[in-house]
Amino acid sequence: MSILFIYLYYYRFKDAQEKFREVVANQERLKYEKITAQYKSLQNHISPHFIFNCLGGLDRMIRENPKEATRVIYSLSDCLQHILITLEKGTITLEEELIFIHKYEELLHIRFPGSIQISKFIDQVHYHKKIPPCIMQMLIENAVKHNNFNSENKLTIIISSLDGDRLSISNNYAAKKEENGQIRMGTGLDNIRQRFQLLTDEQIIIQQTSSLFTANLPLLNNE
């Protein structure tokens, strides 16, 4: 009887040990995925092309309106600082993200004067909700990257809160095309999905027609 007990104890111990190893392996995998997502986000945000375009617009603004140029330089500095600091965090409040987007808009208006319009319809009861940092900026940059627009045919982006703790970011859609005629899709969406998967079981919902793109995102509770 005692031998049977020892065998049962041994196999139970081995089973528990195996499960523990699986838990540790999963935790390491999650850490790796989080670091990878943060690195990809950093690449998406702070690209030399992005900074070059901003500085190109500033060069003209410094000659024409030095005071305005100084204000925009501060906005660029604030944006870069926000990106570097908040990517170390899992989430930030919706209010913090909206403050960042306001500064980011100023940079967009330098790059594309008179060509982009961003409207926000956010219920303040959602301000304390959380989202991964820079998610809105990634979606806006995705819209800028993959659409044809100009001052006559503006890129219109609408950010709105929804019932059920959701956030909608939509834009009119006039896709750029590859030389072979294939519509280009935003690779940044995979990164956004990955970042939400690390935080919640709630799914992001992407809807796209020939003229409209919409991302429906979950708003998270305080951790």
Structure overview:
The chain is of the alpha+beta class and 223 residues long. It has helices spanning 2-45, 48-64, 66-86, 94-111, 135-145, 188-197, and strands at residues 92-93, 116-121, 130-131, 155-162, 166-172, 205-208, 212-218. The relative contact order is 0.11. A hairpin with a 3-residue loop joins strand 4 (155-162) and strand 5 (166-172). It is 54% helix and 16% strand. Helix 1 (2-45) packs antiparallel against helix 6 and helix 3 crosses helix 4. A 5-stranded mixed sheet has the order 2-4-5-7-6, with helices on one face. A two-stranded antiparallel ribbon has the order 1-3. The protein is globular, with a radius of gyration of 23 Å. It is built from 6 helices and 7 strands; from the N terminus they run H-H-H-E-H-E-E-H-E-E-H-E-E. Mean pLDDT is 78; it is low at 2-7 and 179-183. The protein has one domain: Heat Shock Protein 90, CATH 3.30.565.10.
